[in-house]
UniProtKB/TrEMBL annotation:
Transmembrane segments: none annotated. Keywords: Carbohydrate metabolism, Lyase. Homotrimer. Pathway: Carbohydrate acid metabolism. Belongs to the KHG/KDPG aldolase family. It comes from Luethyella okanaganae. The keyword Cell wall biogenesis/degradation does not apply. This is Bifunctional 4-hydroxy-2-oxoglutarate aldolase/2-dehydro-3-deoxy-phosphogluconate aldolase.
Amino acid sequence: MTDPLDQLRRTGVLAVVRAPSAASALLASDALVRGGVTGIEITFSTPDAPAVIAELISRYGEGAYTGAGTVTTPEQARQAADAGARFLVCPGTRPELAAAMKQTGLTVMTGALTPSEIMLAVESGVDVVKIFPASLGGPGFLKALRAPFPDAPLMPTGGVTPANLGEWFSAGAIATGAGGDLVSSADLATGRYDEVERKARSFAAAFAAVRGAES
């Protein structure tokens, strides 16, 4: 059987795109792909998020790992699935919402920070536990979580940079999520998509170095 998390592992970095408009989200996503970051999470705080996801699927197909973030209702989960999303991400964990997300058949990632929250996520049967905001503890915190949760697929989001990317993977991350450090609200507000592309190149190079060190 194909590992449902194989593409997430190979992608390494999910860019969290929280844009002020659908057009901005598409331009930012194009810049990310040009820069070598092909994991794209379009949040539902972005206007017309399902339409953005559908357009990205049309443009890139299997060439990008595209999904929905900030999924907070079953209806949003269904809308994202209908748009062709590959994965769903919720900032927290609620068993009833996790169940609705799982019913779509997509890869499900829900947020947690404390050990109790991680236990709830695992018990809810999610595919990946998103450690958020990971910036509060850093790679050392993730490494500490690995002791009681050696088999849980953990994805830190927040505080991930090209400079510390290797530390997160060494601490046991299955993949990483990057928001403002990769796609900043300031860059989107001023249309600096060249800066988004530059940052994406830095993240892509850092992940390539991690993969090289692992091989």
